[in-house]
Structures are given as C-alpha cells and as structure tokens.
C-alpha cells in the first residue's frame, strides 16, 4: 500500500472511532430546526451533511481543512520558479488533513502521471458526439465511458466486503483525477483545434501538464491553471456538484458514476456554467456599446436592462456567501500582478464597482457581491483560451479534487445511504392546520 493511502487509512480509522463515539453519546442532540420556507426554498441554512474537506463561512469564504485561500497560496508547495500553489498539494491536504511537504506533492504528481492512461474507447465515445455538442456534455459522456475502469465496481461485483469500500474508492479517485486532464484536453482540441491533440508531458505537474495538453505552454497560463485548479476545487458539501456526487455515491455508485452525476449539476447556469455566462454577458455588453471599456453609467444601464428582461446578473450573488468571494479576490490579485492593463479584466473590475449597489437596491438579493465566476473568464481570454463554452470543464476538472477526496471520506466513515423525507404540499397544508403531526424518526 502506498504511504499516502496508509496515512489516509490511519486518519480515517481515528476519525471513524471518534464519529462512532459522537453518535453513541450525542446522536440524539439536535443540530437544527427546519422551517417550511427552508423546505420549499432549497434547504438554505439547514445543517444536514458532513463534509471533511472544507468549510464555508458566509463572510470569510472557504477554508480547506482550516486554511483560507491566501494561506494556501502561502503554504502549499509551488512548481519550480512558480508562485501559485500546486493542486496536488491541496488534494493531499483535503484527503489527509495536513499540509503536504514538497516531497509529498512531487510523489503525488508522479503517481497521477503514472495513472493517467485513458483507454481508446473513451476517445471513441467523445468522437461519436457531434462537434457542436456542449463540452460539458462531452465531459460527462467521457467520464461515463471511463467507468469501465472502475475497480470499486469490479470489486463490488466480485463480492467485496464493506471494510474494503474505502480502499477501492481511493484507487478509483486517484485514477479518475489522473485521467481527467487528458480527457478534458482531448475535448478542447477536438472541438476547437481541428482534433490536433497534444501528448502529455510526464515531466510536468498535474495542472502544468493540463495547460500543456490544452495547447498553452506559456508559464503565465500554467500558473493560472495551478491557481484555478486550487480555488475551484471545493466549497463544502452542500453545493450542487458536491452534494450530487455525495448523494449518488451514497448508493455505492463508484467514483465515475458519482462524479459524472455531480458534473451534470455543475453544468447548470446557476452553478458552474455561470463562468461562461459571465464572459458571454460582458462580451455582449461590450459589443452593444461599441467596444472599449464601458463607463459605470453604461454598465449600470446594461445591468438594469438584464434585470428588466427577467434574467440574473451572472457571477453575482451566492446561496451562502454574504461578502465578496475570496476566490474572486485571489483572481483579482493574480490579474493585478500579471495582466493589470488587460481590457476585459478592467471591465470585470468596473462591473465589480457598479453591480453590488444595484442588486442591493432590489431589496431581495441576499448577496450582491461577486462570486468565483465573475472573474475567471477574463483571465482565460487573456491567455488565448477564448472558447468560453469550455470553461465549465476546467471548473469540473478542479472540482474533482474536492468531491472525490470527500467520496473517499464518505466510504471510510461508512456514511449511510442518503434518503431524506419528502412531503406533498397537501401534507404541508394539513400540517399548518394542525391536522397531521411532524414526522419523527
Ligand atoms: C460556483 C457557483 O456556483 S457560484 C454561483 C454562480 N451563479 C451565478 O453567478 C448566477 C447568478 N446568481 C444567482 O442566480 C443567485 O445569486 C444564486 C443562484 C447563486 C443564489 O441563489 P439564492 O440563494 O436563491 O439567492 P437569493 O436568496 O439572494 O435570491 C433572492 C432573489 O434574488 C435574485 N438574485 C440573486 N442573485 C441575483 C443576481 N445575480 N442577479 C439578479 N437577481 C439575483 C434571485 O433570483 C431571487 O429572485 P426571486 O425572488 O425573484 O426568485
Ligand atoms: O457553494 C455553492 O453553493 C456554489 C459555489 O460557490 C461552489 O460550489 O463553488
């Protein structure tokens, strides 16, 4: 067994014992009360899940095993000559719960490199789709095609014991994370670069090699990919992609089935697809206004037009956050350092100065501040990755790190099949009238 796997097992055994104790001694203690509004309105604020990898504070933003994004940028190992954290290091942190050493990260990079082979039938499955297919559809189809490689599914079919679930899930997780950059780059080159594919460079780190296979060997782009893969990786457990992966995994679906399900949620415009919607919105605003950097007044008028058409302003608002997303700030810092004069970036910053008061004035938007998606597109366009329909695939490759580390924990902690109770509106009306009782376990 590899030393990372052994370390994970030791940590998991320790926490499993603590959770067992928690359940035995405090299992009946209430963590929440639930209102009718919460039941109807997306279960906001209900504590109903356990996710070890990260925790979100509405005002401070995400912390991965206690580390904020600025702290990750400081403490995680970097590529030689680089300044941004390596995503392998974040994966290690989320899985093991401790900061990795340089050697841990190098080891993980080479482990992923060794596991990155993608069988031909996966490329054939992508090729079978029309080139016009959305890249996220190609991505989930490819992940489903890769499911033939699941060692968890094979072991289950062969009668694996419950105590081994975590081990096979760990193997599937590493294999899938290793393979995703190749799959995603294949989709990009097929759809946008006439199928001229680029072979992996085994000397590069996971994100650097991904940038290379996409066709962007600029060091600046590689650094952007490292940062991008770190900041999009996880956002505690209740977001649509993480929750879906966890839910599907709770049926003992393997990592491929569970992750593909999560990616179908990420492909929705209120979740991960918002990053393509942001740049699309900015580009059409710029075009409508005749090019250049629009003034705040022009942006305000465009925002009001968007709202009057019954649409949302993409990249703004959040189900949990109540301040500017630190992932937006990290990207803003990157842009200030590397591309402060870029026109699209300057538009993003002017939009940031203009949108929040307008949303605030609507009186109903709980968070008028930008989320992660408000900035990412402008950075990618700067380096030449202009095909914005592809952006959510980048998000998906990154999100694999968090949701799959969590899936390993789900199996290691023997978390149960997820199956909450639902009721009908008829039942709700009777409940309000006192004619039926709240349903107790
Ligand atoms: C990686 C991520 O997933 S980050 C989020 C990416 N998504 C986006 O950027 C899309 C734009 N934002 C939104 O649609 C929302 O803010 C969401 C989906 C992110 C959060 O939704 P909620 O938690 O329901 O937000 P909230 O409670 O503030 O919504 C209240 C009202 O304000 C509206 N609202 C919220 N954000 C916005 C916005 N950016 N533009 C216009 N209206 C908005 C909602 O549509 C809702 O209107 P309604 O009562 O007429 O239905
Ligand atoms: O937390 C959420 O609901 C959405 C989000 O920002 C993410 O998943 O990255």
From TrEMBL:
Q: Which InterPro entries match?
A: Citrate_synth-like_lrg_a-sub, Citrate_synth-like_sm_a-sub, Citrate_synthase, Citrate_synthase_AS, Citrate_synthase_euk, Citrate_synthase_sf
Which GO molecular function annotation, any one, does this entry have? citrate synthase activity
Q: Which UniProt keywords apply?
A: Acyltransferase, Transferase
What is its pathway? Carbohydrate metabolism; tricarboxylic acid cycle; isocitrate from oxaloacetate: step 1/2
User: Looking at the Swiss-Prot or TrEMBL record, what is one Pfam family this protein matches?
Assistant: Citrate_synt
Give the EC number(s) listed in the UniProt record. 2.3.3.16
Q: Membrane spanning segments where? A: none
Q: What is this protein called?
A: citrate synthase (unknown stereospecificity)
């Amino acid at each position: 067994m590899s030393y990372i796997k052994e370390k994970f097992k030791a940590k998991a055994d320790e926490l499993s014992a603590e959770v067992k104790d928690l359940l035995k001694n405090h299992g009946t203690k209430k963590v929440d009360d639930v209102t009718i509004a919460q039941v109807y309105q997306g279960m906001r604020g209900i504590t109903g899940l356990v996710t070890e990898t990260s925790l979100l504070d509405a005002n401070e933003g995400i912390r991965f095993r206690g580390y904020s994004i600025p702290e990750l940028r400081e403490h995680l190992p970097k590529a030689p000559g680089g300044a941004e954290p390596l995503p392998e290091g974040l994966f290690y942190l989320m899985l093991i719960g401790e900061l990795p050493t340089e050697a841990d990260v190098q080891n993980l990079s080479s482990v992923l490199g060794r596991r990155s082979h993608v069988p031909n039938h996966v490329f054939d499955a992508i090729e079978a789709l029309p080139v016009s297919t959305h890249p996220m559809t190609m991505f989930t189809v490819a992940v489903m095609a890769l499911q033939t490689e699941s060692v968890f599914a094979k072991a289950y079919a062969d009668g694996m014991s419950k105590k081994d679930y975590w081990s096979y899930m760990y193997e599937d997780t590493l294999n899938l994370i290793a393979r995703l950059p190749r799959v995603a780059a294949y989709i990009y080159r097929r759809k946008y670069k006439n199928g001229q594919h680029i072979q992996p460079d085994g000397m590069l780190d996971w994100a650097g090699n991904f940038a290379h296979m996409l066709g962007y060997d600029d060091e600046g782009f590689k650094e952007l990919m490292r940062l991008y893969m770190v900041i999009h990786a996880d956002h505690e457990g209740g977001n649509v992609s993480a929750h879906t992966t966890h839910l599907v995994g709770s049926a003992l679906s393997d990592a491929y089935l569970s992750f593909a399900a999560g990616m179908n949620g990420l492909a929705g415009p209120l979740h991960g697809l918002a990053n393509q919607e942001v740049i699309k919105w900015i580009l059409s605003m710029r075009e409508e206004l005749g090019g250049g950097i629009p003034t705040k007044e022009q942006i305000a008028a465009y925002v009001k037009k968007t709202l009057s058409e019954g649409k949302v302003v993409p990249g703004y608002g959040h189900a949990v956050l109540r301040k500017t997303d630190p992932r937006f700030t990290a990207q803003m810092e990157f842009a200030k350092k590397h591309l402060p004069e870029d026109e699209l970036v300057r538009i993003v910053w002017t939009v940031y100065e203009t949108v929040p008061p307008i949303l605030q004035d609507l009186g109903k938007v709980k968070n008028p501040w930008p989320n992660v998606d408000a900035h990412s597109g402008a950075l990618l366009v700067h380096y030449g990755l202009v095909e914005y329909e592809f952006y959510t695939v980048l998000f998906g490759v990154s999100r694999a790190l968090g949701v799959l580390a969590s899936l390993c924990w789900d199996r290691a902690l023997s978390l149960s099949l997820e199956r909450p109770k639902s009721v009908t509106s008829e039942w709700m009306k009777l409940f309000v009238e006192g004619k039926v009782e709240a349903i107790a376990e």
